[in-house]
């Protein structure tokens, strides 16, 4: 592949049909990324490892362990790809992006050291403190007496966070002091922090380590049940844009949060290259960071990529090669997109696998609907459930109300035994 520069705008232009991309991961986010990459006219072929049955319809899939850096780098070399895009946090924290860059291939995704901004809540707090980024006051606790003192100091509701990666199960927010103590004891090193009150917003930014390009804000729904009841999950739905946000929100967060974080990571000699995700709470005292993630969020990525008009491969390649300053402003469809997750029975604690899934093709045939696979597998019985979050159904339309109707029309086509679906994704915002 060759990146030509047009003299006119100096933007990095990828020659049409020249780019080969390898996507690492096998969830709904990776399905959406792979699909958006195939829509980019610069892209010739998309590969994925390990992928899933949905990804296999848009990419060539390879049975490679996504957290094995050597194996991923070897696959990238063998395929001769120009760009590797690492989707999930586990491979990033394990240093898969480092392994890919070591063999001379461009990689969209932070180094293992930079991914610590997601991999360690204590590290992220340290970055925020140094860079003056607004966040909840917090204490890192290593012992039982630290925990007791911190819970006492911040009071109820208690917020106790496991320091390391925990697949969405590391945080307990509770008014029950005993439950807070029990969670801390089960974790080891924890961050205990001030409770933040207010709606949450996700803001993603592409960065090459210097230039920061924010996407549109999105909102996800973390609780399992309608009305934000039930246990926390990886996310049960999302939508974008957020019509209720004040104008200039992204710029403000970019100035106060994203740019300072990227600058601080560079200052430390561990520049962050890839997608920086700020989870934000809109509190009475202003916007505060709940957490950083080192990768695209799932399921917010699914609706965001429905709306992004700028070709994705060019953007990710520019970020991976330190040339994001040459990309113009992002182009967005003036539309709304809603993603609804269909989860397995028993999710999030003990998802039951094996149910037969029907109706995916019917749903996908509807105008404005796309179905992204996550926990699915293809076997003798056809498509069956193989993981907690099974499918994400997106609906995209001119208004938020129509986008909701479209997404739920798609959901109505699909069925598997015991499916769990929230009925109120984006409902309040659409009213
Ligand atoms: N300080 C806080 N105050 C109130 N709620 C919080 C706070 N920190 C986290 N939460 C809630 O817990 C969820 C998970 O916490 P987060 O820090 O995002 O960890 P993770 O995504 O790694 O599980 C958040 O989305 C938010 O709803
Ligand atoms: Mg989170």
3D structure, described in words:
Strands 5-4-3-6-7 form a 5-stranded parallel sheet, with helices on both faces. It has 4 domains: 3-108, Rossmann fold, CATH 3.40.50; 137-193, ATP-grasp fold, A domain (Dna Ligase, domain 1), CATH 3.30.1490; 197-264 and 271-310, D-amino Acid Aminotransferase, Chain A, domain 1 (2-Layer Sandwich), CATH 3.30.470.20; 336-430, Glycinamide Ribonucleotide Synthetase, Chain A, domain 4. It is an alpha+beta fold and 431 residues long. It is built from 14 helices and 24 strands. It has helices spanning 28-39, 69-79, 89-93, 96-102, 116-119, 121-131, 144-154, 177-187, 249-267, 301-307, 312-320, 360-365, 400-413, 427-430, and strands at 3-5, 12-14, 19-25, 43-50, 60-61, 83-86, 106-108, 138-141, 158-162, 171-174, 190-193, 200-207, 212-214, 219-220, 223-225, 229-232, 237-240, 274-283, 286-293, 336-343, 369-373, 376-379, 382-385, 389-397. The model is unreliable at 4-11 (pLDDT under 50). Helix 1 (28-39) runs parallel beside helix 10 (301-307), helix 6 packs across helix 9 and helix 7 (144-154) packs antiparallel against helix 8 (177-187). It binds adenosine-5'-diphosphate (ADP) and magnesium ion. The site of magnesium ion has 2 residues, from loops.
Helix-residue proportion: 25-40%
Mean model confidence by pLDDT: 95
What's the CATH C level of the largest domain? Alpha Beta
Q: What is the name of the CATH superfamily of the largest domain?
A: ATP-grasp fold, B domain
Largest sheet: 5 strands, parallel
CATH architecture of the largest domain: 2-Layer Sandwich
Major beta sheet, strand line-up: 5-4-3-6-7
Unreliable sequence segments: 4-11
- CATH domain topology of the largest domain: D-amino Acid Aminotransferase, Chain A, domain 1
The rounded distance between the terminal residues' Cα atoms is 48 Å
Share of residues in strands: 25-35%
Please state the CA-atom Rg, rounded to the nearest Å. Answer: 21 Å
Give the overall form: globular
**Using DSSP, what is the number of strands?**
24
* Category by helix and strand content: alpha+beta
> Number of folding domains?
4
């Amino acid at each position: 592949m060759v990146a030509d520069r047009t003299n006119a705008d100096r933007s990095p232009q990828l020659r049409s049909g020249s780019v080969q991309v390898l996507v690492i991961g096998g969830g709904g986010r990776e399905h959406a990324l792979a699909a958006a990459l195939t829509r980019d006219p610069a892209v010739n072929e998309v590969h994925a490892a390990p992928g899933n049955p949905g990804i296999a319809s848009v990419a060539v899939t390879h049975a490679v362990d996504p957290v094995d850096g050597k194996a991923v780098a070897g696959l990238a070399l063998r395929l001769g790809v120009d760009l590797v895009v690492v989707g999930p946090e586990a491979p990033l924290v394990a240093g898969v992006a480092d392994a890919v860059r070591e063999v001379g291939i461009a990689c969209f995704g932070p180094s293992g050291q930079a991914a610590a901004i997601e991999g360690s809540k204590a590290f992220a707090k340290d970055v925020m403190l140094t860079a003056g980024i607004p966040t909840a006051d917090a204490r890192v606790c290593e012992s039982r007496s630290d925990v007791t003192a911190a819970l006492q100091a911040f009071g109820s509701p208690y917020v106790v966070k496991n320091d390391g990666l925990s697949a969405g199960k590391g945080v307990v927010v509770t008014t029950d002091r005993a439950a807070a103590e029990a969670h801390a004891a089960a974790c080891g090193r924890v961050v205990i922090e001030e409770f933040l009150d207010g709606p949450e917003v996700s803001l993603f930014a592409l960065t090459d380590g210097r230039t920061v390009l924010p996407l549109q804000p999105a909102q996800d729904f973390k609780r399992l049940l309608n009305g934000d009841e039930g246990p926390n999950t990886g996310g049960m739905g999302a939508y974008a844009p957020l019509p209720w946000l004040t104008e200039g929100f992204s710029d403000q967060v970019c100035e106060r949060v994203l740019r300072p974080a990227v600058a601080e990571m560079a200052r430390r000699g561990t520049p962050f290259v890839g997608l920086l995700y700020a989870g934000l709470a809109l509190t009475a005292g202003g916007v505060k960071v709940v957490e950083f993630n080192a990768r695209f969020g799932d399921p917010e990525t699914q609706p965001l990529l429905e709306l992004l008009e700028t070709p994705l491969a060019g953007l990710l390649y520019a970020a991976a090669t330190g040339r994001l300053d040459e990309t113009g402003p992002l182009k967005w469809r003036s539309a709304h997109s809603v993603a609804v997750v269909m989860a397995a029975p028993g999710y999030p604690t003990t998802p039951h696998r094996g149910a037969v899934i029907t109706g995916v093709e019917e749903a996908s045939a509807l105008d404005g609907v796309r179905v992204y696979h996550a926990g699915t597998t293809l076997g003798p019985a056809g498509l069956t459930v193989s993981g907690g979050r099974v499918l994400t159904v997106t609906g995209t339309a001119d208004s938020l109300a129509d986008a909701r109707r479209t997404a739920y029309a798609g959901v109505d086509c699909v069925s598997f035994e015991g499916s769990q679906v929230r009925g109120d994704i984006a409902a309040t915002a659409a009213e």
